[in-house]
Amino acid sequence: KGDVQGSVEAISQSLDKLSTEEVRARVIHGAVGGISESDVLLAQSSEAPIFAFNVRANKQARDLAEKEGVEIRYYSVIYDLIDDVKATLSGMLAPEKRETFIGYAEILEVFNITKVGKVAGCRISEGKVLRGCGVRLLRDDVVIHEGNLKTLKRFKDEVNEVNAGMECGMAFERYDDIRPGDKIECFQVEEIARSLD
């Protein structure tokens, strides 16, 4: 709701421009004047907030909004209203996933260990390997498995990190078709929040 028709139209047009293929701001009802109980009921049935630009809700509407859990947001600057909606829509966007290469390991030999299964005896050829990172098993430079490490050991100790040039033992979660000569690629995936800008 807005104080004059020009404000209501300007806000509606600005909100339309925020829409993308993934998210959309939809004005269910736009009108001039104070916020009434019928506005609150419409917002409640639509599960939407009420945006008030230079107008207020009367006491009955405020009481009903509190009872029904309808949010009324008050603004006196159009850009503040638009920025708030933009921030809300940005929060609805799926995060962008960015992958970072960490290191390579070469499988030198494979051991069968009771209660663990197959463990790859490896040498880190580039970068490093981190416990908890994602791993891909490469055979002749073709990815044949992607998953997570079950174990990362130096000698008999579980470790968090093994650096280039060092040897270690690795086992995959729920996968054991590993052979000498296979390579293990380690990576991390970071989720980055996106915005509508």
Structure characterization notes:
With 197 residues, this protein is an alpha+beta fold. It folds into two domains: 5-92, Translation initiation factor IF- 2, domain 3 (Rossmann fold); 96-192, Translation factors (Elongation Factor Tu (Ef-tu), domain 3, Beta Barrel). Helices cover 24% and strands 41% of the residues. The protein contains four helices and ten strands. It has helices at residues 5-17, 37-46, 59-68, 78-92, and strands spanning 50-53, 72-75, 96-113, 117-130, 134-139, 142-154, 157-158, 161-163, 167-172, 183-192. The chain has a six-stranded antiparallel β-barrel with strand order 3-4-9-6-5-10. The chain has a two-stranded parallel ribbon with strand order 1-2. A hairpin with a 2-residue loop joins β6 (142-154) and β7 (157-158). α1 packs parallel to α4 and α2 packs parallel to α3. The longest helix is centred in the middle third of the chain and has 15 residues, at 78-92. The protein is elongated. The two termini are 26 Å apart.
Short description:
The protein has helices at residues 5-17, 37-46, 59-68, 78-92; strands spanning 50-53, 72-75, 96-113, 117-130, 134-139, 142-154, 157-158, 161-163, 167-172, 183-192. By secondary structure, it is α+β, with helices and mostly antiparallel strands. The protein has 2 domains: 5-92, Translation initiation factor IF- 2, domain 3 (Rossmann fold); 96-192, Beta Barrel (Elongation Factor Tu (Ef-tu), domain 3).
